[in-house]
């Protein structure tokens, strides 16, 4: 699928649930998200049908997200069904890792290729605080199990939060010295209820690169990847920087998002959405609708103009 700016849209991110077993401060309110009716959430069969249509239109890369995707009942069967679709070259999941030790082998056997794990601190007390109750030990065990069963490469997603984990940046970087693991630092985005909270805690990728001058840039394997990668001298792993605020990468964007309630977002950092659920349940021509909405994908986001996102990250899928 080619949008009106000539970009090949071949990457679909599917949020299978807006529920989560954590309450990360930059992602959702302490009381959780507002509950929606059961019928508003796509059934697994509907998610599979939409995934199949997107693949038939040229999508060859799919990522399962949430909320926390591993809390969705039937997730392994869905992954197995999607992995059987002809044409998928890359199939991954983003998880907080709490349940990964339990499900890693099943995920691998179901056809999943790799896993991204959200981890913002290596300190168990700080982890408990930022997640409002999470156990770091569970995540670390999940990471080891993922590596053990071959869900590789393992990528750790670390949201940069000023005054919270800026003192741990070096520790994260040093994880790549002897381990073939990717650490990806992500700029904090003003999304949902945290938009005001996040503005005072923003750290740019450039600030880190200015501090750690020993990091050497490496050639980008995929120009559509949002991350710019670096390595330590003789390091086995990579350090990535995802900079949607300070250095937006919209010109090479190849992705579209499907939320758990059936809405398609052409841009993570835009409030514009199109609800596919009625058309899906009324038997309308979804291929035609999807091709049309891709043509309307915006050129770029407008966060620098103060146009912040109303939905919480957990309801979007990241």
TrEMBL record:
<keyword id="KW-0479">Metal-binding</keyword>
<feature type="binding site">
    <location>
        <begin position="255"/>
        <end position="257"/>
    </location>
    <ligand>
        <name>GTP</name>
    </ligand>
</feature>
<feature type="binding site">
    <location>
        <position position="20"/>
    </location>
    <ligand>
        <name>[4Fe-4S] cluster 1</name>
    </ligand>
</feature>
<dbReference type="GO" id="GO:0051539">
    <property type="term" value="F:4 iron, 4 sulfur cluster binding"/>
</dbReference>
<feature type="binding site">
    <location>
        <position position="253"/>
    </location>
    <ligand>
        <name>[4Fe-4S] cluster 2</name>
    </ligand>
</feature>
<dbReference type="InterPro" id="IPR000385">
    <property type="entry name" value="MoaA_NifB_PqqE_Fe-S-bd_CS"/>
</dbReference>
<feature type="binding site">
    <location>
        <position position="155"/>
    </location>
    <ligand>
        <name>GTP</name>
    </ligand>
</feature>
<feature type="binding site">
    <location>
        <position position="27"/>
    </location>
    <ligand>
        <name>[4Fe-4S] cluster 1</name>
    </ligand>
</feature>
<feature type="binding site">
    <location>
        <position position="13"/>
    </location>
    <ligand>
        <name>GTP</name>
    </ligand>
</feature>
<keyword id="KW-0547">Nucleotide-binding</keyword>
<feature type="binding site">
    <location>
        <position position="24"/>
    </location>
    <ligand>
        <name>[4Fe-4S] cluster 1</name>
    </ligand>
</feature>
<dbReference type="InterPro" id="IPR013483">
    <property type="entry name" value="MoaA"/>
</dbReference>
<keyword id="KW-0456">Lyase</keyword>
<comment type="subunit">
    <text>Monomer and homodimer.</text>
</comment>
<feature type="binding site">
    <location>
        <position position="267"/>
    </location>
    <ligand>
        <name>[4Fe-4S] cluster 2</name>
    </ligand>
</feature>
<keyword id="KW-0408">Iron</keyword>
<dbReference type="Pfam" id="PF04055">
    <property type="entry name" value="Radical_SAM"/>
</dbReference>
<dbReference type="InterPro" id="IPR013785">
    <property type="entry name" value="Aldolase_TIM"/>
</dbReference>
<dbReference type="GO" id="GO:0005525">
    <property type="term" value="F:GTP binding"/>
</dbReference>
<keyword id="KW-0342">GTP-binding</keyword>
<feature type="binding site">
    <location>
        <position position="94"/>
    </location>
    <ligand>
        <name>GTP</name>
    </ligand>
</feature>
<keyword id="KW-0411">Iron-sulfur</keyword>
<dbReference type="InterPro" id="IPR050105">
    <property type="entry name" value="MoCo_biosynth_MoaA/MoaC"/>
</dbReference>
<dbReference type="GO" id="GO:0061798">
    <property type="term" value="F:GTP 3',8'-cyclase activity"/>
</dbReference>
<dbReference type="InterPro" id="IPR006638">
    <property type="entry name" value="Elp3/MiaA/NifB-like_rSAM"/>
</dbReference>
<dbReference type="Pfam" id="PF06463">
    <property type="entry name" value="Mob_synth_C"/>
</dbReference>
<feature type="domain" description="Radical SAM core">
    <location>
        <begin position="4"/>
        <end position="227"/>
    </location>
</feature>
<dbReference type="GO" id="GO:1904047">
    <property type="term" value="F:S-adenosyl-L-methionine binding"/>
</dbReference>
<dbReference type="InterPro" id="IPR040064">
    <property type="entry name" value="MoaA-like"/>
</dbReference>
<comment type="similarity">
    <text>Belongs to the radical SAM superfamily. MoaA family.</text>
</comment>
<feature type="binding site">
    <location>
        <position position="189"/>
    </location>
    <ligand>
        <name>S-adenosyl-L-methionine</name>
    </ligand>
</feature>
<feature type="binding site">
    <location>
        <position position="26"/>
    </location>
    <ligand>
        <name>S-adenosyl-L-methionine</name>
    </ligand>
</feature>
<dbReference type="InterPro" id="IPR007197">
    <property type="entry name" value="rSAM"/>
</dbReference>
<keyword id="KW-0004">4Fe-4S</keyword>
<feature type="binding site">
    <location>
        <position position="250"/>
    </location>
    <ligand>
        <name>[4Fe-4S] cluster 2</name>
    </ligand>
</feature>
<feature type="binding site">
    <location>
        <position position="63"/>
    </location>
    <ligand>
        <name>GTP</name>
    </ligand>
</feature>
<dbReference type="GO" id="GO:0006777">
    <property type="term" value="P:Mo-molybdopterin cofactor biosynthetic process"/>
</dbReference>
<dbReference type="InterPro" id="IPR010505">
    <property type="entry name" value="MoaA_twitch"/>
</dbReference>
<protein>
    <recommendedName>
        <fullName>GTP 3',8-cyclase</fullName>
        <ecNumber>4.1.99.22</ecNumber>
    </recommendedName>
</protein>
<feature type="binding site">
    <location>
        <position position="118"/>
    </location>
    <ligand>
        <name>S-adenosyl-L-methionine</name>
    </ligand>
</feature>
<dbReference type="InterPro" id="IPR058240">
    <property type="entry name" value="rSAM_sf"/>
</dbReference>
<comment type="pathway">
    <text>Cofactor biosynthesis; molybdopterin biosynthesis.</text>
</comment>
